[in-house]
Amino acid sequence: MALLEINYYSETLEMEQSMAVILPELSDNNPDWTLEDLTDIPVLYLLHGMGGNHSTWTRRTSIERYVRNTKIAIVMPSTDLAWYTNTTYGLNYFDALAIELPKKIKQLFPQISTKVEKNFVAGLSMGGYGAWKFAFGTESFSHAASLSGGLVFSKEVAFTLGSETYWKGIFGDLENVEQSSNNLINAARLRLKGGTKPKLYAWCGQEDFLFEASNLAVEQIRQLGYDIDYEVGHGKHEWYYWDKMIERVLEWLPIDYQQEERLQS
């Protein structure tokens, strides 16, 4: 696998952005692969949480090792602290990452598939929210996974992490967030007017402060008719668990994940 750091200009944000990309390549580790095998390959957009950036997944987990025998690309962008959202202060991170970035990937890496059934998105915490938001807000992703995601907002939970000024800058009037498209329940309902519903996965630890919010979001979105694979277990809001669960996400995705081969080599 090749691990690349890409610096590019975002026309949407009108500023430089960075992303890390894990890309399968011909190597001695995979002697049976051919160039034909590495065309139209699936891609997983992997989103970081609050305080992270494009390098966090590779520094905190073994994601590169996990996929080294798997024909899949991993794209890890940065969103700063903007919650993958078109903010009230004019920086449209949702448009830049959910819509513009896949077009940039197509331009830079033509071997990566543009087919919806081969485009996936996953993330943790803030990135778990972003992953489901990408899936509801576009028709570009067939599967979306959330790990310890901030899936439901309330002043009692998410909005306690930081100042009120910060949250208003992201979402606007906090009294109206539940009625806006930034509420994933509303976003899921609006998505029903589009094409095929994305398949969803969620995991949250029972000791996580977001556990009850996760339960509520899964229940409400299931009631809308979405197919959600929901798993829970012991775990806090920390990387020890996310490193384990990203492997579970890879197993869940419709790809030829070479886990046994990886463990034996």
Q: Any overview of this molecule?
A:
With 265 residues, the chain is an alpha/beta fold. It has a single domain, classed as Alpha/Beta hydrolase fold, catalytic domain (Rossmann fold, 3-Layer(aba) Sandwich). Helices cover 32% and strands 20% of the residues. The chain has nine helices and eight strands. It has helices spanning 56-60, 63-66, 93-108, 126-137, 164-171, 184-191, 211-222, 239-252, 259-264, and strands at residues 2-10, 15-23, 43-47, 73-77, 119-124, 143-147, 199-205, 228-233. Strands 1-2-4-3-5-6-7-8 form an eight-stranded mixed β-sheet, with helices on both faces. Helix 4 packs parallel to helix 6. The longest helix has 16 residues, at 93-108. It is globular, with a radius of gyration of 18 Å. The model is unreliable at 260-265 (pLDDT under 50).
The gist of it:
By secondary structure, this protein is an alpha/beta fold. The protein contains nine helices and eight strands.
Features:
265 residues; alpha/beta; Rossmann fold; eight-stranded mixed β-sheet; globular
Mean pLDDT: 91
The CATH topology is given as Rossmann fold
- Could you tell me how far the N terminus lies from the C terminus, measured between alpha carbons in angstroms? 15 Å
Radius of gyration: 18 Å
Structural class: alpha/beta
Strand content: 15-25%
CATH class: Alpha Beta
Low-confidence stretches: 260-265
Q: What string, H for helix and E for strand, traces the elements in order?
A: EEEHHEHEHEHHEHEHH
Give the tally of β-strands: 8
Number of domains: 1
State the strand order across the main sheet: 1-2-4-3-5-6-7-8
Q: What is the assigned CATH homologous superfamily?
A: Alpha/Beta hydrolase fold, catalytic domain
